Amino acid sequence: MTEKTILLDHGSGGLASQELIGNLFLKYLDNPTLHSLEDSAVIDNQPGRLAFTTDSYVVDPIFFPGGDIGKLAVHGTINDLAMRGAKPICLSLGLILEEGLSLDELERVIISIAEACKEAGVPIVCGDTKVVPKGKGDKIFINTSGIGVVADGINISSKNAKAGDAVILSGTLGDHGITIMTRRAGISMEGDLKSDTRALHRLVAKLLAEMPEAIRTMRDPTRGGVATSLNEIAAASELAIELKDEDLPVRPTVRAACELLGLEPLYLANEGKCLVVVQGDMAAKALEIMRSTPEGAEAVIIGTMTQGKAGRVVINTPVGGSRVVTPLHGEPLPRIC
Amino acid sequence: MKHLDEYRDLELVKPLVEELQRAVTKPLRVMEVCGSHTMAIFRNGLRTVLPQGMELVSGPGCPVCVTSAPHMDAFIGMADRPGVRVAIFGDLFRVPGSNGSLANASSRGAKIDIVYSPMDALEIAKQHPDQLMVFLGVGFETTTPGIAATIMAAKVQNVKNFVVFSTQKTMPPPLIALLDDPELKIDGLLCPGHVSSIIGAGAYEPLAKKYGLACVVAGFETADLVKGLIMLARQVATGDIKVENVYPRVVSWEGNPRAQKMVDEIFEPADMEWRGLGVIPGSGLKIRDKYSDFDAEVRLDIKLPPSQEAKGCMCGQILKGINTPKDCPLFAKRCTPASPIGPCMVSSEGTCAAYHKYGQDI
Lengths: 337, 362
Hints:
The structure holds two protein chains of two kinds.
Chain A: H1 15-29, H2 32-35, E1 49-57, E2 63-64, E3 67-68, H3 69-82, E4 86-98, H4 103-120, E5 124-132, E6 140-150, E7 166-169, H5 175-185, H6 201-210, E8 215-219, H7 225-237, E9 240-244, H8 252-261, E10 275-278, H9 283-291, E11 300-306, E12 313-316, E13 322-324
Parallel strand pairs in A: 4-5, 9-12
Antiparallel strand pairs in A: 1-6, 2-3, 4-6, 7-10, 7-11, 8-10, 9-11, 12-13
Helix pairs in contact in A: 1-4, 3-4
Chain B: H1 10-23, E1 28-32, H2 35-43, E2 54-58, H3 69-80, E3 84-88, H4 102-107, E4 111-114, H5 118-127, E5 132-137, H6 144-156, E6 162-166, H7 172-179, E7 188-191, H8 193-199, H9 205-211, E8 214-217, H10 222-238, E9 243-245, H11 257-266, E10 267-274, E11 278-287, H12 296-299, H13 315-319, H14 351-359
Parallel strand pairs in B: 1-2, 1-7, 3-4, 3-5, 5-6, 7-8, 8-9
Antiparallel strand pairs in B: 10-11
Family (chain A): Belongs to the HypE family.
InterPro entries (chain A): HypE (IPR011854), PurM-like_C_dom (IPR010918), PurM-like_C_sf (IPR036676), PurM-like_N (IPR016188), PurM-like_N_sf (IPR036921)
GO biological process, one term (chain A): protein maturation
C-alpha cells in the first residue's frame, strides 16, 4: 500500500479540500466558531484593548525533541500576545503544504496543534490551506495570527524600562536553537537537549495579577536570542543594560553543544522563555512569583537597567573585565574549528 | 562540561589576573596567533583588564580570514556550475569574493551544504552520485587530518564524485613571513592550542631561537589564557626566551605523529596565497599527484584569477598586527558584520568581527 500524501487537489478548494478539512482539521481542532466554516470567525465583544499579532513558522526538521512545528506555531503566537500583557483569546491557522507531504506527518502536526491549543485554552477559530507543487515548499509552512485582550491599566512596552529596573530571564538560554542546530547537523548529544517550546501566558497573567504596575517590559527572546532582545529593550528605553556573565543560566548540555559548534547561547532562539523587566524593588517578589510557575521554575535575575550609553548591553566578566553584547547579525553559523 | 569549568573557575582565575599584573614589569606586545584565542580574549573581557604596558595584537590565525579573494571567487564560480554541489564549514558562507559570496550563489540556486566534518560531505556525495561534490578545504593543521582521512575513505570506498579544493594552510611559515617584516614589532607569541596539538609545541622552537620571540602554547579557557600571558610576560622580563607549553593536557612537544603521517600521505607543501599577506612559499598544502582524482583543481581545471583586494581594506595590515581594526577607514562604516568587505569581518573569529562585536568603545 502506498503512503497517503498531500496532492495538489487538497488545495483546490474542491472536494479534496473539504475532505481534508472534515476528516483532519475539524476532527482535531473542532470548536463552535471553527465548525461553522464561514468566511471569517466572529468573536464576541471583549472588554479591554485588543492585541493582534502574526507569525510564520518554517522550521526544519518539523519534528524535534521537545516539540514540532505545530506546537511552535501555537506557542509562538500566544507568547507574542502575552508579551504585551494580553490574555490570548483565539488563533488563526494558515497552512502552506508541499505536494507529497505524508498525510501521517500532517496528522501528527495537527494533533500537536490541537494538544497545544487545548493545554493553553486558546482555540483555533479560522484557517486556510494551500498546496504548492513539490519542490516549491518544504513540507509544511504555518502561519498563525492571534487576538488577545489587554486589561485596563496594563501597559507593557520595551520603551517602559527605567534605570534601576531588574532584568529577569524565566529560564535557561538557547535550548530550542541548539536542539534544532544539532538535529540539522545530525549530531546526537547525550543528555537533555530538547526544545523549550511552551506557552507563557499563564506566567504572565500571574505576574500581572500580583504587580500590574511594576512590570515594565516583557519580550520572548526567539530568533536572535536573548542578546538581540536585550539590545532592542535597551534601544527602545534609551538605557544601558548590565549583565553578569556568571548569572546567565545555560544547561551543561547546551553549553557543551555550543562549544562543539562554536555558537553562543546568548544568540540562540528560545521558544518558551521571557525576559521581564521589573521595577528594582519588586524584583525579588517577581522572581518568587515566576519560580512558583512551571514555566518560570528556573527564573533568574540576569541584569539591571542602567543610565549608561543608550542602547548598550554590556556583560561584566568573571575576570573583572567587560564586553559589549551586540545584536545578532545574520544566521548563527558554526565555526570552522 | 568536564575539564572546562575548572579552567573558568573564579577562585582560580582571579589570583591569576592579579599575578599577571605583577608579571608585567617591562612593556611588551604579544600576538595571539589563533582566531579562537582572539574570540576567547574578547569574550572574557581580558583586554579591559590587561596590565599597563601589555598590548595584544591579533595575528593571521583565522582560516576563513586568510582565504584569498581569488580562492573565494573560484569557490563561488564552482558552486555556480551546473552538476556541482559544494560542502563548506559554516563561516565560509558569507565570506566575500570580489563579487558576492557563497550566500549570493546559494540565492541563485547553487547547491551548498554546510557540514561539520568533511566526512559529512563524503556521505552527501554518495547520496547524490549524479553531482560532483566539492569540499572546500579551508583551514590549518586542525582540519587537515580530517580532510586527509576523508580522501582516503573516498578512495577505499571508490567514490568517484567527491573532490577537495585544498586551500589548506600550515602554521609556522606565515609567522616567519611576518617576523621578516621589519614593520612588525612583537615580543611574544601566544601560540595556538588546537594547531599545536597536531604540529607540537616544538614547532615554534626556531621562532624562539632565530627571532628571540617568547613563545607560549596556551588553551582557550580563561585560566589557560591568563596563564599563557603570565609566562610570556615573565620570559620578556627575565630575558629567558624559549618555548613553553601551558596546555599540556592537549599539546605535546612532538604533536600527533599519526595525524602528521596521514596528512603527509595525501598532501605536499605548496606556495599559497594568503589574504592580506600575499603568496607565502611553502605555506599551503596541495593534494599529491597520486590522489589527483580527488583534487578539484585538477578535475575541474581551475585557474585562479589574479588577486584584487578591496580598496581601502586594511585586512592585510590588521592580520600582521601592524594596525588594529579601528585604524581602517572602512571599519564599522562600509564594512560591518552584516555587510562585510574584508574577511576579518566575516568569521566570528575574525579580528574585525571580534572588535565590532565586543570591542566597540571598550
